[in-house]
Amino acid sequence: MSTTLAATPAKLSDGTWGARVSALGLKIGTKVTITTRAGKTWDAQIDRIVSEKDGVTTVATRKLSTASTYTPAPRYTPSTHSNTCDECGRGGATRTAYDSSGLEGRVCNGCARESSHTLSFA
Ligand SMILES: [Zn+2]
């Protein structure tokens, strides 16, 4: 069976986290997709049946090794207060300069020596 069952996280009596599935007769090794109230989901595999009650099975789960951990891409937030040179991208920008189109930028001493015609902050 390749269908995955919807599950919600459940704290087990031994303090570890498992899942609650609204189904009975589950088998060890069955895949479940756990969704938290916050909307985070991950795939897990049933490791152990903990209890079956009122149509709900509580299971101990194991995170699937194939499930990729979601790592958000590092956000690039250019800061106007940083000392990054607008021209060469290196730190140490202490000078204000204007490029060929009149845009204001922060540049390092090295780039400040360049004529405004070679600078481009756009
Ligand atoms: Zn520079």
Task: For this entry, give a set of tags.
122 residues, mainly beta, 1 helix, 7 strands, binds zinc ion
Notes on the protein architecture:
With 122 residues, the protein is mostly beta strands. The protein has 2 domains: 5-63, no CATH class; 79-122, no CATH class. Helix content is 3%, strand content 38%. The chain has 1 helix and 7 strands, in the order βββββββα. The chain has one helix at residues 109-112, and strands at residues 5-11, 17-21, 31-35, 41-53, 56-63, 95-98, 104-107. The protein has a 5-stranded mixed barrel with strand order 1-2-5-4-3. It has a two-stranded antiparallel ribbon with strand order 6-7. A hairpin with a 5-residue loop joins β1 and β2 (17-21). The protein is rod-shaped, with a radius of gyration of 28 Å. The structure holds zinc ion. Zinc ion (ZN) is lined by residues 85, 87-88, 90, 107-108, 110-111.
